[in-house]
Recover the amino acids of this structure.
């Protein structure tokens, strides 16, 4: 490969590769061409002296690292950010969120909500996310316009949803959605999302899983977010949620279970043996008082775990840096063991771990030649990031989304020096303010 | 009072007074003169039309609110930020922090560390803090230069400290410290800080308390940070820590106990009846896996509780916005009750609550005429703060330190549009990097 025909070179800065070897390269060079990482090394090495690239990014005073992977979002819920807080999960969901969704979710709301959510995510270092909501087809158009990488999943539930007032048409619409976007992988990867075992009948759960298997796509569902779910499913079907889903044949290594706060030791054995993956959303589950997932135990058993923020109505932000900080701390304190969840472990969970959960680890999660160029620069020349002893610790415990200076997704610069290139930020904020004004007026 | 002779007017913006009535004023006016708030109202009201003030601050697109009160810091520990993480408290303290302090803490280190810490605090919305460390006299010189409001406490322990190699001279030095600074209240308020019941003998605890009573100053100590402390004190003195201190006559309404993670119901009765105050530091205690303080229970009993970050070696930042977010969430999830700690309750804890704990509530904590002008502006024209339904929720769950645009302490603008006026930020960072380089080299 010739050095002089790269599209972008990122020069200087401390590179965290997050590869299996976890190399850290000082005064680094990363070469990008045609969306791929084509060179990783040290400035001055390997003939990196006569570079003639189209674009040079100075990474002095920066940590260069893989973009963060948010394994669970409901993007348009930014429109409900702060609308109903400090409430129990079921009261929040059934008395506030579901009614608001029935009234106010439409194509315009999801497009504009998703666009603002992506602005927030890019500005806080996320390059890939996994979304599930209504009108996912429209959301995906917004994703495509914003140039983010995503797993986009069409939602299913056994009640009429804003996008599918006639239940029997849900699956046909979802199939059209998959057909439309399946060729865009690995930028855009369609999937199916059954809301939960308590909102989806066994028939729905099974039919959607079969359709997902046919299409060769991921199948997601919320599982064991709060403790009551155990009694609900026990009363309804005579089995625990995990046993219920196991009996239905739902679980396999293309299944992502979200939350899993009340997973038992037996449940984890099931997950480990069948390769079921987990999305861990500590802040949302703390705020809803839903519980703390036994993630250290899951990881001991080799279960793939990625980090996620959940939707903005239950967090209330999409900042993966905050989420990493909380993830590291909550497991320490609940186990009274500060060694269970190190900064490095959490940073892996938010990069390579998330990539594995989404089935994208061949493409993203680390900075290595041949991988897609999803890269962020974190500005460390700041008082709260001074001094610097340990990059992993600094990123997890002290850095925050606002420290992300530049973001590259699939080899395209989507944000530089905090300026977004693919989203009109003022318009995005104004549009969502308009939607919120209608929600307030409609109350 | 005439309108035309104010020093500063803050105009426009949504004002959260945090007064007893918790008024929220849209398109507000705050007038400042001679360090005091002299007018609070709505733009256009009460003849606020012909203002001729020296300085006008445009608060459009901002929340105007009292500066945050951080009730527990060890400022110079910024020099140890990220030096030793993911370790148990006692291993962290005795094998890492105490040895590093013995080697590297000196007047230069504390001055420069404190200066960088204050830069970080001002940039994240704190206007008042309560510090305890070695060479507190030198730290206080840095505080005075930075123009922050602080309770500064000279530390005591039964081992030779970097500032007091001869134990018998500790109290005399501390008395000189108090004499030097006592006249600077309420900008600078000296206090005494006994490290803990396990590092201070009964004699030290009692002698220092007597000296504090004589001087009429606050007495602070770390208490029940981790569970082992109960056994340590039981084995050594035959009593629980709280009973031990109660028997020694330490407790009164001028005592601030820091952490209190393992306070029992009986302990809380003691605190409530004697007026003992509490500094709550959730993030530090989570990171050290020390425990979660029973704050909702304390508040039910009327115990005064303020929020704090603790030192940077155990958090690892001084951002009170992050601390508020965590405080709200950790109590919800540990009690599995999302109503125990509302956003409003937490914001009170970080403003008026902290002011009460530090005995400064006559002067600060709310925006009311006659109070000192300690005020911050939070820029809400940002994607992660859009839309806005509820200011309290937004500030606690979505805002972060980096959103603080402007800060006024005692009527002086110390930061405007993210530029610091009283601290040379580049020099502060460079100085601490130099100290860290020596620490790394000395290892």
């Amino acid at each position: 490969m010739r050095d002089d025909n790269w599209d972008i070179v990122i020069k200087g800065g401390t590179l965290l590769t997050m590869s299996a070897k976890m190399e850290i390269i000082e005064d680094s060079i990363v070469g990008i061409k045609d969306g791929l990482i084509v060179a990783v090394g040290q400035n001055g090495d390997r003939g990196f002296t006569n570079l003639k690239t189209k674009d040079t990014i100075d990474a002095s005073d920066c940590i260069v690292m893989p973009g963060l992977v948010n394994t669970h979002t409901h993007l348009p819920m930014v429109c409900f950010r702060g609308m109903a807080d400090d409430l129990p999960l079921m009261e929040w969901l059934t008395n506030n969120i579901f009614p608001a969704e029935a009234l106010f979710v439409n194509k315009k709301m999801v497009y504009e909500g998703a666009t603002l959510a992506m602005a927030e995510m890019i500005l806080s270092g996320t390059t890939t996310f996994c979304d599930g909501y209504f009108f996912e087809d429209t959301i995906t158009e917004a994703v495509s316009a914003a140039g983010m990488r995503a797993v986009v999943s069409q939602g299913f539930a056994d009640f009429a949803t804003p996008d599918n007032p006639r239940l029997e048409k849900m699956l046909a619409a979802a199939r059209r959605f998959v057909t439309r976007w399946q060729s865009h992988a690995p930028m855009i990867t369609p999937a199916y999302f059954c809301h939960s075992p308590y909102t989806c009948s066994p028939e729905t759960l099974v039919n959607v899983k079969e359709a997902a298997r046919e299409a060769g796509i991921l199948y997601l569902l919320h599982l064991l977010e709060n403790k009551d779910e155990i009694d609900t499913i026990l009363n309804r079907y005579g089995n625990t949620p995990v046993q219920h889903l196991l009996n239905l044949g739902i679980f396999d290594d293309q299944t992502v279970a979200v939350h899993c706060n009340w997973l038992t030791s037996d449940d984890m054995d099931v997950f480990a043996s069948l390769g079921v993956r987990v999305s861990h959303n500590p802040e949302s589950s703390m705020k809803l008082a839903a519980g703390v997932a036994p993630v250290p135990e899951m990881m001991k058993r080799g279960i793939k775990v990625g980090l996620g923020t959940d939707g903005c109505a239950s967090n209330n932000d999409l900042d993966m840096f905050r989420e990493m900080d909380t993830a590291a701390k909550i497991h320490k304190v609940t186990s009274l063991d500060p060694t269970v969840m190190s900064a490095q472990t959490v940073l892996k969970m938010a990069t390579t771990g998330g990539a594995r959960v989404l089935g994208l680890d061949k493409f993203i999660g680390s900075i290595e030649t041949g991988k897609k160029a999803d890269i962020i620069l974190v500005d460390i020349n700041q008082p709260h990031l001074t001094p610097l002893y340990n990059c992993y610790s600094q990123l997890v415990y002290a850095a925050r989304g606002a420290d992300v200076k530049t973001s590259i997704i699939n080899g395209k610069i989507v944000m530089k020096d905090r300026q977004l290139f693919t989203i009109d930020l003022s318009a995005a904020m104004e549009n969502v303010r308009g939607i919120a004004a209608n929600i307030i007026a409609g109350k």
